[in-house]
Structure formats: C-alpha cells, structure tokens
Amino acid sequence: HHLHPVTRASRTSFRRRFGPEDIALLAQLDNAAPLTAQVPSPALALGLDSAVAGKRIGEIILFASASLGDGTMAQVDVATIARAVAALKGAGFDAEAHAIALEAALANGV
pTM of the full predicted structure? Predict the structure, then answer.
C-alpha cells in the first residue's frame, strides 16, 4: 500500500508530536480508510496552518473542527484527520486529539 506524499509527511510530523498510541491508530486508520474519502477545502487547511503558526487557540479549534466536517469520521481523509489531531495536540488539547484519532479509527473498523 503506497502512501500519498501528504500522508507520509503527516506521519513524519505526527511522530514528532504524538505518543505511540496515536501513531498506531493513524497507521491502522490509513490502511483501513476508504479510497473515496472527502478532502476539505484547501482554505481550511491553510487557515488551520496559519492558526497553528500564530498560536491562535480559538481558530485552531474552529479550523480543525471545520476541516473534519459534519459527516462521519469514516468519510474524512486520513491526512486531514492527522492535520487536525496534530494541531489540537500542539495547542494543548491532548485528550481531545486522542479522542478524535480513536473515533476515526473506530469509524473505519480499526
């Protein structure tokens, strides 16, 4: 199973910020995720990156939530989940980030 370069980059960034439990969940999720996952607007990813760079907590929460969408976690692209989880973890929301990774894993049958 070959990874898309964004997913590979997300995993590298993820390893720097997260413990083994979260890494294992996303690795399993990547293998179980559907090929037709929804990818959010690039504006949401850029907004999240900007909020992280500026350490704007409210915007991090807003953009992370918006990028995950309002459907089930089984419909969200793995790289998007990794980006949102990394942003929340970096902002100090460890438990929430882990809960999102776990929810995504369970939604995808991991």
Answer: 0.68
